[in-house]
Design goal:
By secondary structure, the chain is an alpha/beta fold. It has a domain of about 325 residues: Metal-dependent hydrolases (TIM Barrel, Alpha-Beta Barrel). The strands form 4 sheets. Strands 8-9-10-11-12-13-14-18 form an 8-stranded parallel beta sheet. It has a 6-stranded mixed beta sheet with strand order 3-2-7-19-20-21, with no helix packed on it. Helix 13 runs antiparallel to helix 14. The chain starts with 8 loop residues before the first strand and ends with a strand. The N terminus is likely disordered.
C-alpha cells in the first residue's frame, strides 16, 4: 500500500457502523480511526489509509464496557487475558469490592470467611500471593499486563483482618487509627477508593462511626466509597440511610453496590429506595450512584443465616466436596439424609447461588438514570453464577432488544460513559479523539448471553470485535 504525502493514516479504521459514543446520545453513522492506543479520528474518514480496515456494516460500535463491580482481584494477575470478561466486550474492571481486597493482607485473613471469595471458597494455599501493602498488589497487576484496565478499591474487611484480633465488636481508637493508616497507604499507592461489606460477619459489628473514619481518608484522596450495604432485605431502607450518611459526613461520593431487594418480604422496596437515592442525589454535595446485575439470583458464601428466604440454592463450589458444584443444596441434603444446616456444615467452606429477588425490582433499578452495570461475578468458583460470563450481552439482548426496559444508547451509557464519570476515569468510557482506544463492535440484532445456571461458562453471541488499548483481543 502506498501512502501519499498528506494522507491521514491510522492502524485501524472502523467504517459503516452505528456509533454510540457512550454519552447517552443516539447512534450516528461515522467512522472511527485508531492509532496505537488512542482514538485519532471520528467522522467521515473514507480517505484515511489504515493498516487494518473493519467494515462494521449492520453493527453497533461503542466504547469498551466498564464492569462497575467485580471480584477479579487475583484473576487480573493469574489469568491476565481475562477471557470471561473480554468476550463480553469488557475493557475495564473495578476490583476490591464488598470490603474485600487482596491487600493489605493480615495474619488472619486466610482463615476468615468471606476472604475465600478469591479462591472459589477454598482456603488459600501456602504459596498463594501475599500482599503486605497495596503498592505490592498494584505492582503485580502491572507486571501481569492484563488485557483489561483495573480500577482498585481497598477493602474495609481486609483492613479489619489486618489489625483486629476478633470481629464481633467495634474497632477501638487504636485499631481505627491503624486502619486509617492502611487506607491512606493504599490511596497514596494508587487505589481509587474504599469499599465495605457490612453484611458479612467480619464487618457486621462495625458501627457507622468506624466506616466514616475510614471513608474520610479515602475522601481526602479524592476517592470513592462503594458499599455492599448492611441489609438488602427488610432493613434495606435503613441501610440506604446509613450509606447516604457515610457519604455526607465523610464527604465522599457513594456507590451502592448490586442494589437489590433480597427476600420475598422486601420485594417492591425498590420504589422507596430509589426515591431516597433521588432525594440524596439532589440534596447532597457528594454524588450518589448504584450498580446492578441483570439476574434475580445472587451469589456469595454459603451461610446458614442466608438460606431461609431463598427459593432455591445452588452450590457453586465447596472445598471438601468439589464434585457437588452445580447441584441444589436441597438435593444434596436429601441425598445425605440430613437437614439443610447439617449439609451446609459438611460443605463448608463453600459458595452458593441464592434465588431471592423479583424481576420487577430488577427492571426498576436497571432503568434508574444513576444506575451502572456490574457483574459481581466470582471467577474462582468452579460452577460460577452465569453473570460472570453473561452480564453485558444479557443487558443488550434481554433488557434492550427483548424487554425494551432501556434503549440501546442508554444501555451503552450505563456500561461506559456513566461508569467512567463516576469512577473518574479520564480518557475512557466515551469515544472521543484523544481517548483510549477501547472499542467493542457488536450485532444489536443477535447479541445475547448464553451462560445459564446449568452451563455458566458459555460464551455469549453477537460480540464481534473487542479492541483494548488499540489491540484487537476478540476477532469474531
Amino acid at each position: 500500500m502506498s501512502v501519499e504525502a498528506g494522507d491521514k493514516t491510522c492502524d485501524i479504521l472502523i467504517s459503516n457502523g452505528l456509533v454510540f459514543d457512550g454519552t447517552g446520545a443516539p447512534g450516528v453513522r461515522i467512522d472511527v480511526a485508531i492509532q496505537n492506543d488512542r482514538i485519532v479520528g471520528l467522522g467521515a474518514l473514507k480517505d484515511w489509509v489504515a493498516r487494518e480496515k473493519i467494515n462494521a456494516q449492520g453493527m453497533a460500535v461503542a466504547p469498551g464496557f466498564i464492569d462497575a463491580h467485580t471480584h477479579d482481584d487475583l484473576a487480573l494477575i493469574e489469568h491476565p487475558e481475562m477471557r470471561y470478561k473480554v468476550c463480553q466486550g469488557v475493557s475495564t474492571v473495578v476490583v476490591g469490592n464488598c470490603g474485600l481486597s487482596p491487600a493489605p493482607i493480615g495474619p488472619r485473613q486466610e482463615d476468615v470467611a468471606p476472604f475465600t471469595i478469591f479462591r472459589g471458597g477454598k482456603t488459600p494455599s501456602l504459596d498463594s500471593p501475599r500482599y503486605p501493602n497495596f503498592a505490592s498488589y498494584l505492582n503485580d497487576i502491572k507486571l501481569a499486563q492484563p488485557w483489561v484496565h483495573a480500577v482498585t478499591l481497598v477493602g474495609h474487611l481486609t483492613c479489619r483482618a489486618a489489625v483486629m484480633d476478633r470481629f464481633d465488636r467495634a474497632a477501638n481508637n487504636e485499631e481505627i487509627c491503624a486502619m486509617q493508616a492502611l487506607v491512606d497507604e493504599a490511596m497514596t499507592a494508587g487505589a481509587d477508593g474504599f469499599s465495605t461489606g457490612l453484611a458479612y460477619p467480619p464487618g457486621l459489628a462495625a458501627p457507622i462511626e468506624e466506616v466514616i473514619a475510614l471513608a474520610e481518608v479515602a475522601g481526602r484522596h479524592k476517592g470513592i466509597y462503594c458499599t455492599h450495604m448492611r441489609d438488602e432485605g427488610l432493613g434495606l431502607l435503613g441501610s440506604i440511610d446509613e450509606t447516604l450518611t457515610v457519604g455526607k459526613l465523610a464527604k465522599i461520593p457513594v456507590v451502592i453496590s448490586h442494589h437489590k431487594c433480597s427476600g420475598r418480604a422486601s420485594w417492591g422496596l425498590s420504589k422507596q429506595s430509589l426515591l431516597k437515592i433521588d432525594s440524596a442525589a439532589r440534596d447532597q454535595l457528594y454524588p450518589v450512584h448504584l450498580d446492578v446485575y441483570p439476574y434475580t439470583a445472587s451469589s456469595t458464601g454459603l451461610m446458614a443465616d442466608w438460606i431461609d428466604d431463598a427459593d432455591r440454592i445452588i452450590i457453586t463450589g465447596s472445598e471438601p466436596h468439589p464434585e457437588l458444584a452445580g447441584l441444589d443444596l436441597a438435593d444434596i441434603a436429601d441425598d445425605w439424609e440430613c437437614t439443610l444446616i447439617e449439609a451446609i456444615e459438611r460443605l463448608h467452606p463453600a459458595r452458593a447461588i441464592y434465588f431471592k429477588m423479583d424481576e420487577a425490582d430488577l427492571e426498576r433499578i436497571l432503568a434508574h438514570p444513576l444506575c451502572m452495570i456490574g457483574s459481581d461475578g466470582l471467577p474462582g468458583d468452579s460452577h460460577p453464577h452465569p453473570r460472570l460470563w453473561g452480564t453485558f450481552p444479557r443487558i443488550l439482548g434481554r433488557y434492550v432488544r427483548e424487554r425494551k426496559i432501556i434503549d440501546l444508547a442508554t444501555a451503552v451509557h450505563k456500561m461506559t460513559g456513566l461508569t467512567a464519570k463516576v469512577f473518574g476515569l479520564s480518557g475512557r468510557g466515551v469515544l472521543a479523539v484523544g481517548n483510549c482506544a477501547d472499542v467493542v463492535i457488536f450485532d444489536p440484532d443477535t447479541v445475547i448471553d448464553k451462560a445459564t445456571y446449568e452451563k455458566p461458562k458459555s460464551l455469549p453471541v453477537g460480540i464481534k470485535k473487542v479492541i483494548i488499548g488499540g489491540q484487537i483481543r476478540i476477532d469474531g
